[in-house]
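Notes from hallway chat w/ T.B., transcribed later so I don't forget. T.B. wanted the structure written out for a chain they're using in a teaching module, and asked if we could keep both sequence and structure tokens in one place. Agreed to drop them here.
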Amino acid sequence: DLGTSADFACCDAARLPFRPESIDFVFSYSVLQHLQKQIVRDALKGIARILRPGGTCFVQLPNAIGFMSILRQARRGLREAAPGTFEMRYWKRNEIERAFHDAGFGALHFRPEGFFLQNTQREDVDLLSATGAVAVRASCKLRDLANRIPLAARVADSLWIEATKQ
């Protein structure tokens, strides 16, 4: 529909089945947050391996210091997600920076993705309950505000990380 050619692969995140430096762009939305952090670190190294120099990855991760993220972590006793579960893994900004840097990426660009929720898409409002629709609309307004006031992005519950291979 978009007039773009794309290939998709279903595989282990830490073992991407592509040749080194053969990919221009990697996108991950609402996936890596459910994997153990070491697996994510390995996956980022794999992404860096397959990206061409100057290639970009665009990854969404939950922010550990977002308002709702803190409440959700408190509900589970402020413990890390149990190994081998689908539980959310919350990332601190410095953990994200370290993981991407260690994988071989240069400068990172952080943007807010959502507030109150992890997946906030205006396009989904008509599919949600009235409460869900209000939360998505509020999240989108806060995201728009945080794009103008970068300090506000530090407390977004969900972040976009854009990284370019050095």
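Follow-up for T.B.: The longest strand covers residues 51-62. Might be a good example for the class.
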